Amino acid sequence: MLIEFSIENFRSIKEKVTFSMIATKDISLDGNLIKDVLKEDTLLKSAVIYGANASGKTNVILALGFLKALVMNSHNHQKGQEIRFTPFKLDKKYLTKPTKMSIVFMKNEVKYHYEVSFDNEKVIEESLYYYPNNKKAVIFSRSDSKGFKFTIDEKEQKVISERTLPNVLYLSKSTQENYKKTAEAFDWFKDNLQVVGTTDHPALANFTIELMKKDAELKSYVLKALLEADVGIDDVSTISKKVSPEDLKNLPPEVIKLILGDKPEIEAYQIQTLHKGVVFDFQDEESEGTKRIFSLIGPWIDALKNGRILVVDEIDTKLHHLLNIFLIKLFHDPTQNKSNAQLIFTTHNTNLLDQDIFRRDQIWFTEKNPEKGSSDLYSLTEYSPRKDKDIEKGYLAGKYGALPFIKENRIF
After folding, report:
1. What CATH number did the domain enclosing 5 receive?
2. How far is CA 291 from the centre of its chain?
3. Looking at residue 199, what is its pLDDT?
């Protein structure tokens, strides 16, 4: 479970912003809460981020995805290889400042707190704390890139740290070398954090197919969800084939890289859907909305079943409002979400600003500072609206900010 995430000097985010899944003491919409996992706090099952185009809401999602990718791949960095560094560019001072990220999460009933700062050349600071028996303890801390401190397993960790390059995360390197105390935190990024972008990438549909092929019970869940979504699909089948760079030679190199990754070939599927006994080609004959719901439903069911944190940019892309509500309420329903899964997403759909769907502490906004050009992130709770308040009407009237500023209603 995600508890809190902070970002500083990343893309449009200049000064530190913090996104929190900790609930307030409000007792409304009890089903939207995860209880009894933290000693003092209750967590939220979902959160939504609103904001104008280019306000920075996608950058919050990108930061989570970036941190996961860095943790997962850092140990593969070669000596001198640059870290992908995207600082805030509208202030020259920040071009030489490090990006900083901090994340607090739960894994196997233990709370962890991981922090890292880096530039394009090296990891500058890094630390991992955990809370066995609710008491804070240091697993490792790192300063000035090579200055490590350990309070447990000092001999073992010192050997690993001496083999950790300046441009490599110790969290990644130590897990690669089978150090168990960091492996739990690494596994949270690998297994529990799932980030889905805005595009209908073929890998998403393939993920749903893989899920259905792997487990007959999961296939029944997918088909039931598609039935509930009323897209008319009775069954799904596939024809698989190997895809290599030669098969994709007419595509731009960057697209080929996106599809294949580092693999020489992948297994691709020609998906076929069944409607009232008639076979349809998924790619050519299904609507864009049907393809979107099919791409999402696999990660959705996987997250609900396995207690993952599902992060989705622009959930409303190509989906009807009622389908959005259907997907969101699966996370809020304790009969469907039995593993404390969490959903975080961005949207422009103001119809979801409904206090019958979301608590006030579940609603977040991003806004671009017109003078600095930087993004701010804040919760609706900062405005303390009444529980009977029409949040959508107030938002569109500009009471909570995070709206585009359109100077004139004309071009010519």
Report:
1. 3.40.50
2. 21
3. 56
